[in-house]
Design brief:
The protein has helices at about 15-30, 35-40, 45-65. By secondary structure, it is mostly helical. It has a domain at about 20-60.
């Protein structure tokens, strides 16, 4: 198997899948660092379900054509005469 990056890997930070999978990876750490009072108010199962849903959104986002415009925006300057 020969692994290669996708052609537009430099723009991966814009992809929904990257955002969702980053969030899925960080949710358990955030929950672990919450004060114990907050952890007691929200069972860990809720965090597990949120993480799983976020990961599924990441997979769907990765499989979806997101039509991200990669051309830089043009700046239209108006000059006064």
């Amino acid at each position: 198997m020969n692994l290669k990056l996708v052609p537009d890997a430099r723009h991966a930070w814009k992809w929904i899948s990257i955002h969702a999978l980053w969030l899925a990876g960080i949710l358990p750490s955030v929950w672990d660092n919450l004060p114990h009072k907050w952890q007691d108010a929200m069972p860990f199962n809720v965090i597990c379900i949120c993480t799983a849903i976020t990961a599924v959104v990441g997979i769907v986002g990765r499989l979806t054509d997101q039509n991200i415009d990669l051309t830089p925006p043009t700046i239209h300057e108006e000059h006064e005469c």
